[in-house]
Design brief:
It is built from 6 helices and no strands. The chain is mainly α. α1 runs antiparallel to α3, α1 runs antiparallel to α6 and α4 packs antiparallel against α6. The two termini are 17 Å apart.
Length: 148
């Protein structure tokens, strides 16, 4: 009986994760696939933007950077979309990625209103990624609590 209750709780927990994991996983899948065959100009633009905040990325070739970014996004998509990947693992990957994009938002000039945290029009695409951080943390908490 106890194992049946545990199974029911695990199924319910997994079902509750679907609204978090599915749309974000689909978003990452699309983003990763769109960068997969990035042309030179697109790859250079992505790398230059990221290197403004994270200078070590300038050492990578632009095409290599775009491939690594694409691969990372596809790995996160896989972790989110496959229910066999534990929530805490998927959440940790999503949290790490979102912290990187929020770092871009906070540290790149022109992304925020002067003297504040509110985004400029240019900053909105990165500032909105705060929802990824919230979902990532929620998945970590869910994963940790479901194993207790």
């Amino acid at each position: 009986m106890a194992s049946g209750m545990a199974l029911g709780t695990a199924s319910r927990s997994t079902a509750l994760q679907v609204p978090l994991r599915l749309p974000v996983g689909a978003f990452f899948l699309n983003s990763g696939l769109s960068k997969r065959g990035a042309d030179q100009a697109t790859a250079e633009g992505l790398q230059q933007f990221a290197a403004l905040t994270y200078p070590f990325l300038a050492k990578l070739g632009a095409r290599r950077f775009a491939r690594l970014l694409s691969t990372g996004e596809l790995a996160i998509a896989t972790a989110l979309l496959l229910p066999v990947v534990p929530a805490a693992v998927a959440g940790a990957a999503l949290t790490a990625f979102s912290l990187g994009t929020l770092g871009l938002y906070l540290r790149t000039p022109g992304m925020r209103e002067e003297g504040g945290i509110r985004p400029t029009e240019q900053g909105i695409p990165l500032a909105k990624d705060v929802w990824m951080l919230g979902i990532g943390i929620a998945l970590i908490v869910e994963g940790v609590t479901e194993h207790r």
